[in-house]
Amino acid sequence: MASKSSPGEHNKEKGDEKTSEASVSSSSQSISVSTLADQVSSTLSFAQSCGSKSSGEVKLNELSDLAETGKRNTYRPSTSSDISDESTCSGLSTNKPHKANDVRWEAIQVVRAKHGSLGLNHFRLLKRVGGGDIGTVHLAELHGTRCYFAMKVMDKGALASRKKLLRVQTEREILQSLDHPFLPTLYSHFETEKFSCLVMEFCPGGDLHTLRQRQPGKRFLEQAAKFYVAEVLLAMEYLHMLGIVYRDLKPENVLVRDDGHVMLTDFDLSLRCTVSPTVVRSTTLVSEALQRSSGNNCAQPACIQQPSCMSAPTTCFSPRFFSSKSKKDKKDKKPKTETGNQVTPLPELIAEPTTARSMSFVGTHEYLAPEIIKGEGHGSAVDWWTFGIFLYELLFGKTPFKGSGNRATLFNVVGQPLRFPESPVVSFAARDLIRSLLVKEPQHRLAYKRGATEIKQHPFFEGVNWALVRCASPPEIPKPVEFESAPPTPAPATSTSVKADQSSYLDFDFF
C-alpha cells in the first residue's frame, strides 16, 4: 500500500499466490508470544503515559501443518456479520496501550455508544487517496467529530470472483492483533452487503517512495536512511514475534505519519505461522558470532582490504556484552586465555519463526528473494532479504537487481552478484550490512537464525538506542493537510469496485 510510481523508473508489480501457505509447527514453549510481543512494544511507548495495560490474548489463527501433503490450508471462518462487526473492536482502546489516549478512539466510542454500532453511514468520504490490488483507500471523516481516518473499501463480489477473499480476511485479522508504534491501528471494521471496510489511521506524509523522489539525487542521506530502516526493523521484529512473515516490504508500503515517524502497511500477502520463543545463552551467541566473523562480514576498512583479518577472534560482530569489572580489578587477576571467558554470560531472547514454510510466489519483482523465484519454498528469511533491498534503495535511489523488464529482474536476482555503484559514497558498515542481508542462500543470510537481534548488533546501527527510537527526531516533518478543502468523493458503490484485471497493480498513496 503505497505510492504511485512512474512505469519507467519504478515498475513494481505484486505477484499472486501460486499455491497455498504451509507452516511447520514447533513445540510449545512456556513463554507466551503475546507477552513477549507486548514487552517489545511497551519499550517503544509514546512519551506520555498510556495508563495500565490490558494485554489480552493475541489471536492468530492456526494453520494446519500441510507442508508435506500440499493441500490448501484454510483459516478459521470469519465471525463477522454482513452488516457490522464490532465485537472485536469494542475493547481495542483498552487493549492497545499505544493508542489508549488517542482522541480518535474516544470519538469512535462516543458514536458507538450513541448508535450501538459503526457503519459506512457514519463517515463522510472526502477523497480517494489510493488504490490497490484488493481495494481502494479513502480519506474519511467521522461525522460531527472532525476526526479523520483512512478507510480501505473492498468490493466483496469482485474479490470473490478473483478468489481473493482470503487475503482480505488475513489482513483484517493481522491488523486486529497489532499494537506497535510503527504499525497501523485498526480502529474499526464493518461490512455492508457489498463492501468490506477497514478504518485505520491516516498518514498525511505519503510513503517513502514518494518522499525519496523529492530528495536531492532521489536518495536519502545515510543518517536519514538509518532512521527509517531502524523503525521498520522494530516493526518487522514485532511481526516475527507474533509469527507473521511480512513478505511485501518496499518504500511504497512504508508510510509517513504527521509526526515524521513511519508506519508499515499492507498485510494481505503476509504469512502467519507458529513461533517458539527461546532463550539462548551468551556462550552459544559468542560461538555463532565467531563463526560468522570468519566470513565476509567485517565492516572495517582493514578487514575489507586484508582478508587475513577475518580469522581474528575479536571482530565487529562479537556480541557487545562486556565485563563490568574495573581496570584495577583486572590488573589484580591473571589474564584469561579464552575469548569466551571475557564475555559476561547474558542470555538473549530469540523469537524468529524459523520453521515457517511457504511455496507461494508473492511479492514485488525487484524485492523477491531468490528462494521465492526458484520455487524452493521460503520462510522468514525472505523478510531480511527485502530489508537489504529496502536499505539499498533508500541509500542509492534504485534497487540492486533491476533489469530492463520483470523477467530480466528475476534473472538478475538469482544469477547476478551484488554490486555497489561508485556514487554516492556510503559507509563501509552500510555496505557490509546490505552485503550480509543479500546472501542468495537463505541459511547463510544475516538474521536467518536470530532474526532482528543480529541486525541490531551490526556496526551500522552503532549508537542507536532501540528503546528510545520513538523519541528520536525524524529527518523530515510532513506539511499539515487541509482536510476541509478536500472535495467529497462519490459513494463507494460507484467508486470503489475492484478491477478484475490481475495484471495491473497500483500501490496505495496513503494508508
Task: Give the secondary structure arrangement, pairings included.
Elements: E1 14-15, E2 21-23, H1 33-42, H2 92-95, H3 103-115, E3 123-131, E4 136-142, E5 147-155, H4 156-161, H5 165-177, E6 186-191, E7 195-200, H6 208-213, H7 222-241, E8 244-245, E9 254-256, E10 262-264, E11 271-272, E12 278-280, H8 282-293, H9 301-305, H10 327-332, E13 348-350, E14 356-358, E15 363-364, H11 370-373, H12 381-396, H13 406-415, H14 428-437, H15 452-456, H16 492-495
Antiparallel strand pairs: 1-15, 2-14, 3-4, 4-5, 5-7, 6-7, 8-11, 9-10, 12-13
Helix pairs in contact: 7-12, 12-14
List keywords for this structure.
511 residues; alpha+beta; Phosphorylase Kinase, domain 1; 5-stranded antiparallel beta sheet; two-stranded antiparallel ribbon; 15 strands; 12% strand; globular; disordered N terminus; disordered C terminus; nucleotide-binding; Prot_kinase_dom; ATP-binding
Describe, in plain words, how this protein is organized in 3D:
Pfam families: Pkinase (PF00069). Its EC number is 2.7.11.1. By secondary structure, the protein is of the alpha+beta class. Among the domains are: 161 residues, 2-Layer Sandwich (Phosphorylase Kinase, domain 1); 65 residues, no CATH class. Helices cover 28% and strands 12% of the residues. The protein is built from 16 helices and 15 strands. Strands 3-4-5-7-6 form a five-stranded antiparallel β-sheet. It has a two-stranded antiparallel ribbon with strand order 1-15. Strand 9 and strand 10 form a beta hairpin. Helix 7 runs antiparallel to helix 12 and helix 12 runs antiparallel to helix 14. The N terminus and C terminus are likely disordered.
